[in-house]
Structure formats: C-alpha cells, structure tokens
Amino acid sequence: MPLRIIDDPVTRRELSSLAPELGDLIKAVVDIERGVMAIGGEMHADEEAALLDDGSRQADLWGINLYPAEAGPEWLEFDSMINVRPSRGNRSRDVEDPVVREAIRQLVTTLVRDA
C-alpha cells in the first residue's frame, strides 16, 4: 500500500482497510504540530520521510503503533526507533515526555474515531 497522510478523521475500521496488509498492527508517524498522521509504510522511517517531504519538522514527528481491534489504552503504543532523540531527552524507543504522549493521544483521538 502506498503511504497515506491522514488529515481528516477516519474510523478504526477505515484505518484498518487503508493498510490491510499490515494485519493487526498499523505503524504510524504523527506530526503533533500540524495535526496529521502518516500510515502505510513498512517502517516508521518511511512515514517519517513522507511527512518531512510534506513540510513537517523532524522535532514534531513521533512514531507510534496502532492496534485498531484493541479496546482501551492498549490500542496505542508509543514505540519506534525514530523516537530515540537524546538531544531532546528521549533516550529510548518509547515516548518518555508525558506532555508529548498526551499530545499524541489527543491527535490520534481526533484523527481516528471509534465509530
């Protein structure tokens, strides 16, 4: 599937249909400043590159994994190699800053609806 930048809300079902070959896991990269999300890449770095080409700034991009079939907080995972940013104090694949995590949650909630 080609990479796709999501800037209008989609449902979880639509999200799954946009990247069916990825199975239960959908890799995504969010731009917390622009309010967009890229999906469909084999790796987070592919989606990151697409957003950078689309005008995003590296500092605003964070890699996540989505599990549309899951309920509750387990459906969103803050795990990606692109999140390792020692210069910003993020030394692991996880998003460590609670403010950034909340911004990501809010963006995903805005872009991906349950119904």
List keywords for this structure.
alpha+beta, 7 strands, globular, 27% helix, two-stranded parallel sheet, five-stranded antiparallel sheet, 3 helices, 115 residues
| Poorly predicted tracts of residues | none
Order of strands in the sheet with most strands: 1-4-3-5-6
Q: Mean pLDDT, nearest integer? A: 91
The helix/strand series, from N terminus to C terminus, equals EEHEEHEEHE
Tally the helices: what do you get? Answer: 3
- Rg (CA only): 13 Å
What is the helix content? Answer: 25-40%
Shape annotation: globular
Distance between the termini: 23 Å
Which structural category do the helix and sheet elements fall into?
alpha+beta
How many structural domains does the protein architecture include? 1
Strand content: 15-25%
Largest beta-sheet characterization: 5 strands, antiparallel
Q: Would you count the extended β strands for me?
A: 7
Task: Characterise this structure.
This protein is of the alpha+beta class and 115 residues long. The chain has one domain. Helices cover 27% and strands 22% of the residues. The protein contains 3 helices and 7 strands. The strands form 2 sheets. A 5-stranded antiparallel sheet has the order 1-4-3-5-6, with helices on both faces. A hairpin with a 4-residue loop joins β3 and β4. The radius of gyration is 13 Å and the shape is globular.
